[in-house]
Write a structure and sequence with these properties.
- With 579 residues, the chain is an alpha+beta fold.
- The protein has a domain of 56 residues.
- Helices cover 23% and strands 33% of the residues.
- The strands form eight sheets. A five-stranded antiparallel β-sheet has the order 1-3-4-5-6, with no helix packed on it. The chain has a four-stranded antiparallel β-sheet with strand order 2-33-32-31, with no helix packed on it. A four-stranded antiparallel β-sheet has the order 7-8-9-10, with no helix packed on it.
- A hairpin with a 4-residue loop joins strand 20 and strand 21.
- Helix 4 packs parallel to helix 7 and helix 7 runs parallel beside helix 12.
- The termini are far apart.
Length: 579
C-alpha cells in the first residue's frame, strides 16, 4: 500500500536491514506490502528520522571519545594538526574562546581564611595608597575577589591603617553626650570625667527643689538632663564607615563647603567662640551674645549684659556668661530666656568653666574665684588667695586650677572651697592654663611653659623656645601644643619634655589654637587660618581667604568655625558638610 498524496506518491524509505517476519506469518505466505506506520498512542514515542545534523552529533561524540583516549603528547599533536588547518578567522575564534579559560582565579579554590589573610596583606599595601578607588578596581578582578573586597574585615583593616575611629566609638559618641566644645576645652581630659558624670545622670530623674523659681521649674530639663549631642547618621558597616571618614578627611585636606555670615554691621571684637553639638555661640565686646545653629544660621541674640562679654561656657541648652559688667548670667539657649543674674564679683569676669551641669566657677579681675549653684542661683563659695587678676582656669573632677597675673597658679578643692597648693615659678603673668588630672601646664608672659604635678606642686619641666607671651596652649594625652605672640606654634612631647615640631605659623600673634589627634588649627592676627598635620608638622592648607584679623577659630570632627574681620565687618565662616 502507498500513501496517497497530491501528485505522484513516493514509497517510504526502506531501512538497509531486513525486516524480521512476525511470528504469526507463514514462511510460504507472500510478503505484505508496506503499510503506513500506526499513529502513536499517548504512551508511545513518535518515530524520529535521522538528519545530517544527527550525523554531525554522532561524529562529534566519536571524536570527543577518541580524543579523551589519547595521551597528552598525542592530544597536542592532534590539536596542532587541527590548528594548522584553520585560517586567521578561525584562529581568532580559538583565541577568544581559550583566553578566558587560561585566567585562573586562585580565590575560587582557596579557603576563606586564607583568602582573607591575603586580603589583609593587600589592605596593608593599599593603606599606603591615598585612594580608595584602588579597592574599587580590585573588586572588579573577579566575582570572588569582589565578595572578599566587600567583606567587612577588609574595610576594618583599612580603618585601622588610616587610624579612623572605630565604629564602636562612633556609636558611643552618638548615644553618650559630652560637654560642649571650646577651643581650649574639648580635647582635654575633662571629656572622660564629664562623660562619666553624664552617664550617671541617665540613671535617675531630677526633682527640682520647691524653693526654685518658676523659671527653673519650667526648665528642669536644662539642669536635670544631659546635653544632647548632634547625631551623625549611624553607619552600618566598616565599608560605609570608611567612606564617611575618608570623605571627612578629604574635606579637611581639600576643602568642604564654606558659608560666610556677617553678624555685625560695624567692627566688633570677638571675645569668645564655642561650637557645641547644637549651637555656634559668639560673644562680643559690645555686650551681645549671638546664637547660631551649626549651619551658621542666626537663631537669636541674648540681651542682658550692659558691657562687653568676655567669657562663655555652654552645657546643652544651658549657657553661663560673664563680662565687664561684673555679672554672671545663666541662659536657656533654646528660648533665649534669662534664668539668673548672679552678682558678687566686683570687677570684670574674665574666665568661666563648669564642673557639672549645676555648678560653674568664675574667675575675675577682683582676684577671686566664685563657685556658683546654677540651679539655686546662689554663690556657694568664694576662693581667695590670688593677689591680681585671675586670667584663666581649668577643671578636672573636684579640682580647679587657676592662673593669675600675680605669676602664681593655684590648685583648689571645689567641694571644700579651699586652696590645696600654690605653684610658684613664673616670672611674669600667667595667661593660659591646662589640666588633665595628672599634669598642669601654664603659659606665661615670661615666654616659658611650665609643667607641674598637681599632687605635690613640684615643677617637672620648663619648656622654652617661644620668644614672647605664650597665650595659647592645649594639652591632650602626652601632647602639648602652644602658641605665642611671636607667631610660632610648638608641639611638645610630655614624655620627653621636648619639642617635636617648631612651626613658623603666622606673621603676628597666635590669637586662637586648637588640635585633635590629626591636625592643628591656628588663627593669627595676620588674618590667616592654617591647618597643620600634627604628626609631620607640615602645613596642610589655609582654611580661608586672608582677612584683616582672625579673632577665634574652633572645630569639631566635621566642621570648623572662623570669626574674623573682613572689610571692616565682623564675619563668621562655617566650613564643613563634606558629603
Amino acid at each position: 500500500m502507498h500513501f496517497s498524496s497530491t501528485g505522484r506518491s513516493k514509497p517510504l524509505p526502506t531501512p538497509n536491514k531486513s525486516v524480521p517476519l512476525l511470528h504469526n506469518l507463514l514462511p510460504s505466505a507472500p510478503t505484505s506490502p508496506p503499510t503506513p506506520a500506526p499513529s502513536p498512542t499517548p504512551q508511545q514515542r513518535a518515530p524520529t528520522w535521522q538528519t545530517a545534523l544527527d550525523d554531525g552529533d554522532i561524529f562529534l561524540r566519536e571524536a570527543k571519545s577518541y580524543f579523551s583516549l589519547l595521551g597528552r603528547a598525542d592530544r597536542q599533536t592532534f590539536l596542532a594538526e587541527l590548528l594548522n588547518l584553520c585560517d586567521n578567522q578561525l584562529l581568532g575564534f580559538v583565541h577568544q574562546f581559550v583566553s578566558p579559560k587560561l585566567r585562573k582565579d586562585p580565590f575560587e579554590t582557596f579557603p576563606n581564611e586564607l583568602c582573607l589573610r591575603v586580603v589583609d596583606q593587600a589592605a596593608q599595601i593599599l593603606s599606603f595608597i591615598d585612594d580608595p578607588k584602588t579597592l574599587a578596581r580590585a573588586s572588579q578582578v573577579s566575582r570572588r575577589w569582589h565578595d572578599l573586597v566587600n567583606d567587612d574585615l577588609t574595610w576594618k583593616v583599612l580603618c585601622d591603617r588610616h587610624s579612623y575611629r572605630r565604629m564602636s566609638e562612633d556609636y558611643e559618641l552618638k548615644f553618650n553626650p559630652y560637654l560642649p566644645t571650646s577651643s581650649t576645652y574639648r580635647f582635654n581630659s575633662n571629656f572622660n570625667r564629664d562623660l562619666q558624670q553624664l552617664q550617671s545622670a541617665y540613671g535617675s530623674a531630677h526633682d527640682p527643689s520647691s524653693s526654685n523659681t518658676s523659671a527653673i521649674a519650667s526648665l528642669t530639663g536644662i539642669f536635670g538632663g544631659p546635653p544632647v549631642r548632634r547625631q551623625r547618621t549611624k553607619t552600618t558597616s566598616y565599608r560605609s564607615h570608611f567612606k564617611q571618614r575618608y570623605m571627612v578627611e578629604a574635606a579637611w585636606r581639600k576643602g568642604g563647603n564654606l558659608k560666610t555670615t556677617h553678624i555685625t554691621p560695624d567692627h566688633g571684637v570677638v571675645t569668645s567662640l564655642h561650637l557645641t553639638p547644637k549651637y555656634i555661640l559668639v560673644a562680643l565686646d559690645n555686650a551681645k551674645i549671638h546664637i547660631f545653629n551649626t549651619e551658621g544660621e542666626h537663631q537669636r541674640t541674648l540681651d542682658g549684659h550692659v558691657m562687653g562679654v568676655w567669657a562663655l561656657v555652654p552645657w546643652g541648652d544651658l549657657l553661663v556668661s560673664g563680662g565687664c559688667d561684673r555679672d554672671v548670667r545663666v541662659w536657656d539657649m533654646s528660648t533665649g530666656a534669662s534664668i539668673h543674674k548672679l552678682r558678687g564679683h566686683t570687677s570684670t569676669v574674665r574666665c568661666l568653666k563648669m564642673s557639672d551641669r549645676k555648678t560653674a566657677i568664675s574667675g575675675s579681675r577682683d582676684t577671686t574665684l566664685r563657685i556658683w549653684d546654677l540651679e539655686a542661683g546662689v554663690c556657694k563659695n568664694v576662693l581667695v588667695g590670688h593677689s591680681a587678676s585671675v586670667r584663666c582656669l581649668e577643671i578636672h573632677g573636684d579640682i580647679v586650677v587657676s592662673g593669675s597675673y600675680d605669676t602664681i597658679a593655684r590648685v583648689w578643692s571645689i567641694s571644700e572651697g579651699r586652696c590645696l597648693r600654690s605653684l610658684a615659678g613664673h616670672f611674669s603673668q600667667i595667661y593660659a592654663i591646662a589640666f588633665d588630672g595628672r599634669r598642669i601646664a601654664t603659659g606665661s608672659l615670661d615666654t616659658s611653659v611650665r609643667i607641674w604635678d598637681p599632687h605635690t606642686g613640684q615643677c617637672h619641666a620648663i619648656l622654652q623656645g617661644h620668644t614672647s607671651l605664650v597665650g595659647q596652649l592645649q594639652m591632650s594625652g602626652d601632647t602639648l601644643v602652644t602658641g605665642g605672640s611671636d607667631g610660632s606654634i610648638r608641639v611638645w612631647s610630655l614624655q620627653r619634655m621636648a619639642a617635636i615640631h617648631r612651626l613658623a605659623a603666622h606673621d603676628n600673634s597666635i590669637t586662637s589654637l586648637q588640635f585633635d589627634k590629626n591636625r592643628v588649627m591656628s588663627g593669627g592676627s595676620d588674618g590667616r587660618v592654617k591647618i597643620w598635620d600634627l604628626a609631620t608638622g607640615q602645613l596642610v592648607r589655609e582654611l580661608s581667604q586672608p582677612a584683616e584679623a582672625v579673632w577665634r577659630v574652633t572645630f569639631e570632627e566635621e566642621k570648623a568655625v572662623i570669626m574674623a574681620t573682613r572689610g571692616g565687618r565682623t564675619i563668621m565662616e562655617v566650613s564643613g558638610d563634606p558629603y
